[in-house]
Write a structure and sequence with these properties.
The protein has 415 residues and is an all-alpha fold. It has a single domain, classed as Growth Hormone, Chain: A (Up-down Bundle). Helix 12 packs antiparallel against helix 16.
């Protein structure tokens, strides 16, 4: 009988801690978008504040991957949570004292982006190593489902906290969530690492990882195509949802929370769907099909005649986007050599960085042509690119998960 990934205690504790971390992140995302739009009335500034989070991600992400390969991952995870907790509480205090302006919001976004950079490569690569490799797809899928369980509850909670207690309570609550996550890391028995291949300085190891991504055609294709939806389409959710809630459907912060939660409900379903689809070998077709369906969902949001229809579109968007993300991220990690998985995983931080960069154009276009037209145009453009790539790329059409396993399910190390 096959075992559940939760039968491994270290994975179980890491997953529970991730729930608290992801909840804090989604409360922050919903709250910051509302604060910026409430104070400025500018979609461009909502996008800009979200966009500056990309700076530390782009600058520090490769180095954080080297750190995940070289240093104690438990300490990396703990320090990222302590700094996130302290920064959130300080920002909440600044809101309470009414000393927050747009520049303070920019600074907060940059610092929180830097805190998150330490967390992700260490958390993702550790989760991958806490279970047998033949359970990797399930581990990645369930790890992602954990983030979306938080996405179901946290944004709605953020919206209602704004109604009941004001915006300040969101950030104090978020700080507590990060602190709990830091404490739970102490329960995780980190896997013993084998001897590192090649050794060398941090700089040489960083270059080694980047050279592998540049030379390995499958990894390069996966990362480039993985980033496109996060730059073109995903930003329409975080950046434009406050505009949909406030101006398009006039539902207020409660409606904002419901939209994020609808994405989360779909995301949980998408995580399970990705796990079910892992029985099918043709992952290239799965990824392209999921992206096209995601684009159709976002276009559906743009033409939704009422708020209930918009929520349905959000559910479908969450499900299809998560199906794609889990499949893509799993293939990237399966293709990575064992000794540099932290470095390769750190490249996946380009995805949230691209969301932040994409927020600039999403916010600017929303001011120029409206939230609905921005959603539809971004979805159509991205969908057309993926259909074209599938038609033109034999490597994408022929991509199979079985390429990375020997007969019997053992991994092909360093494929």
């Amino acid at each position: 009988m096959s075992r559940s990934v939760f039968s491994y205690p270290a994975y179980r504790w890491l997953w529970i801690g991730g729930i608290f971390t992801f909840a804090g992140q989604w409360i922050q995302m919903a709250s910051m978008g509302w604060v910026v739009y409430e104070l400025t009335g500018s979609g461009a500034l909502v996008g800009a504040v979200s966009g500056v989070r990309a700076l530390p991600m782009l600058i520090l992400a490769p180095l954080s991957g080297v750190a995940a390969d070289r240093f104690d991952r438990s300490r990396l995870l703990q320090w990222s949570q302590w700094f996130s907790a302290a920064t959130s509480v300080l920002f909440g205090a600044a809101l309470a004292l009414e000393v927050v302006n747009i520049w303070v919001m920019f600074l907060f976004a940059i610092v929180m982006g830097a805190c998150g950079v330490l967390d992700r490569p260490a958390r993702h690569s550790t989760a991958f190593e806490l279970v047998p490799r033949d359970m990797a797809m399930k581990a990645v899928a369930i790890n992602t489902i954990g983030g979306n369980l938080a996405r179901v509850v946290a944004p709605a909670l953020a919206g209602y906290l704004i109604v009941w207690f004001g915006i300040t309570g969101n950030f104090f609550f978020q700080g507590a969530l990060y602190a709990i996550s830091g404490l739970l890391v102490l329960k995780v028995a980190m896997p013993t690492r084998g001897a590192k291949s090649g050794g060398g300085t941090a700089g040489s190891q960083l270059l080694e990882g980047l050279r592998h991504v540049a030379r390995d055609r499958t990894t390069r294709l996966l990362i480039v195509l993985g980033g496109l939806p996060f730059f073109l389409v995903v930003p329409t959710m975080g950046t434009l949802f406050p505009i949909y809630a406030k101006d398009v459907f006039a539902t207020g912060p409660g409606g904002l929370g419901l939209m994020f939660s609808a994405v989360g409900v779909g995301g949980v379903s998408g995580g399970y769907l990705a796990g079910w689809l892992s029985r099918f070998d043709r992952t290239g077709w799965i990824q392209v099909g999921a992206v096209v369906a995601f684009c159709l969902s976002i276009a559906g949001l743009g033409v939704a005649p009422s708020f209930p229809w918009a929520l349905f579109a959000c559910v479908m968007a969450g499900m299809t986007e998560m199906t794609y993300s889990v499949t893509n991220m799993t293939m990237v990690q399966l293709a990575a050599p064992e000794e540099m998985r932290g470095r390769i995983t750190s490249i996946l931080q380009l995805y949230p960085a691209l969301i932040s960069l994409g927020a600039f154009h999403a916010g600017w276009f929303a001011d120029l042509i409206g939230a609905r037209a921005t959603s539809i145009s971004a979805a159509c453009f991205c969908g057309a690119i993926f259909v074209g790539i599938m038609l033109a790329s034999p490597r994408m059409r022929g991509m199979r998960m079985s390429q990375y396993f020997k007969p019997g399910g053992a991994p092909i190390s360093g494929h």
